[in-house]
Write a structure and sequence with these properties.
By secondary structure, the protein is of the alpha/beta class. The chain has 19 helices and 15 strands.
Length: 487
Amino acid sequence: MQKTELIFIPSPGLSHLVSTVETAKLLLQRDERLSVTVLIIRRPNDNLIDNYTQKHSSNSNTNSRLQFINLPYQENSPVSTNVLFGFIDNQKDHIREIVSNLMKNPSQSGDYKLGGLVLDMFCMKFIDVANEFNLPSYVFITSGACSLGLIFHLVELKYEHNQELANYRNSDVELSVPCFSIPVPAKVLPSVVVEEGPMSDIFLNYFKRIPEANGIMVNTFHELEPFAIEALSNQNKYPKVYPVGPILSLSSDDEQSSHQGYDEIKKWLDEQPESSVIFLCFGSMGSFEESQVKEIASALEKSGQRFLWSLRKPGEEGEGVMQAPTEYEDFGEVLPEKFLERTEGIGKVIGWAPQVAVLSHPAIGGFVSHCGWNSILESVWFGVPMATFPLYAEQQINAFELVKELGMAEEIRIDYRTNMRGEQLSEMVGSGEIEAAIRWLMAEEGGSRVRNKVKEMKERSRMALMEGGSSYNAQSVFIEDVIKNAS
């Protein structure tokens, strides 16, 4: 039996690593011929990464065919985005050495082939390493098919049609994007590709290399994004697309064990009626200035809805980028006076939230989300309808897709964005907008359309991963293509 090994290279950070490892575990469970080595680009003293890899290395189900290799790191951890990309690219020589060693001294015995490199979209320069060794390369996209199609379209506009994408900044123009069935307003394009300066070119130069790969795994499923997947599949100039998701880390045990306040959160949720609580959570980088916090608080209080709010403190600005949020010692320093007293019994404000554990709780009836793709997939998996409050990255296009393309979310805003450089926001989402969306989402007669669609997609997300399902079949095709390309 031929054994085939894949080398996965995720971008730095726990979220990218978790998606990568969950994908690797899924493939290993599907086919005993596969083994996986994950190369980890990490910052110094990243204990979360170390703890995560140690736990999965000791997993008896896959540890014989899953290994982790920590790449060397510079003593000064990168902060700004352009430095981070340089930090990634500088690993090229180390990766070349590891690939060479694996080809000479494989981690598996017997009839062995190195099947290729599976790259995060921000690790595209390592295609050069694959080419040097005449190995296939594949890309793993942690976002959805619509986002991938938009990336391809923007690259075409920039490099084939010589358009200056900065002209779309603050524009009212609508674009015809092949992976969307409706026009896409320029106001929801990712900030980084339409801003002036070097960052747009840096990002687009990574994206431009995706078509060089032999194939693209996308963390989505056909039933969720049929129009986009078919549009991508019908384009001969793009590599083969494998919609293999939803790939999620659904074990809430890790979250609960690392969250000291989980027992208190669960106790409070257990006391609430089924589907009665609106959950507000904005991702690992999600936070707001005090003025916006007060608008959200006012909306929650006026709505009269039960709520669980993950409220985190903005990180200090440093070297031109926003730092990760921290925890408030006292929520009273940012909330309206006596807000906690007035909402006692119907609402609970917390810091970091164990999101999977919360979304899976029967008391949760709605989710105000920043529209990160993992959060969207988790919300669909648990059948929780969303209201959109995007902040950065590709979240605006995700919000547009949910509200306008798929009809699976209520809109608070689809074009709101925070500045990841930590600059003061120039716009504000008023309490009236937020209150109206929350009321509509939670009302039986109001949010029923969205709620029914999400519940239907919940069942389809599970069916996609079952034997014979769309994603199960896509995974099978990917595995067979990897083994064939390695022969």
